Amino acid sequence: MHDYLLGGSEHYRADREAVARLLALAPSSGAVIRNCRAFLERAVRVLARDHGVAQYIDFGVGLPARENVHQIAREHVPGARVVYVDVDPMAVAHGRLVLEEDAGTLVVRADITRPERLFADPGVRRLLAAEPTAALFGSVLHCLTDAQAPTELVADIRARLPPDSFVAISHLVSDDPMVRRRVTALMAELTGDRWGRVRQRADVARYFAGTRLLEPGLTDVRHWRPDDRLQPPQRTHEWTGWCGVAAI
């Protein structure tokens, strides 16, 4: 569904039918997903260009995009290293074909809710050095249920990163309780109750407790350091992405 909304080609009839149902509830969903992806790309560019970050862990990477994290980061840090993480075997298989370009990129099949296993992975330990690292949670935490404790999970992962690291997060939110309820129910149906929920802005703020937010702080993904590298972000109505980038 995500790939289809981004204009990709790796999707099936069932995905397109599911997207049609989603668009009936929230017609601006395509714009939301594109805006969230554009935010992630800008965040990586800022972290590499302005802060010299050379290591990234991209959680819930999904299917490869047209411009991926290592490609963006290496525009400013040529030796940037990236660990791409996903639990979906199809995403991992595609990722290994496209994203593992050299010794500085690695695709790992791992459950985001078991970070101790990811950080103990021999390949991850070989690739990542004890230096500032950016943990990227682009449109993935809303896929976790409250029982999976995403706020505590982010805090756990932050605690495992070296000093002077960063975290970047985008999350689907809505001020309309009906949108939150209906979209969450639809996604739960489509995934066999393996999806989280559309949350509120205050929920996203909790992910950043104890961190130092980079300007402009927590904001709509459309407004986080917009640039002219990508198409202008589109206004959305029923829901949006709420985001931030912070130093740990």
Explain how this protein is built.
- With 248 residues, the protein is α/β, with parallel strands linked by helices.
- The protein has a single domain (1-247), classed as Vaccinia Virus protein VP39 (Rossmann fold).
- It is 40% helix and 17% strand.
- It contains ten helices and eight strands.
- It has helices at residues 2-5, 13-25, 29-51, 69-73, 89-98, 115-120, 122-127, 150-160, 177-190, 201-206; strands spanning 55-59, 81-86, 105-109, 133-138, 166-173, 212-213, 219-220, 240-247.
- Strands 1, 2, 3, 4, 5, 6, 7 and 8 form an eight-stranded mixed β-sheet that branches.
- Helix 2 runs antiparallel to helix 9 (177-190).
- The radius of gyration is 17 Å and the shape is globular.
- The two termini are 32 Å apart.
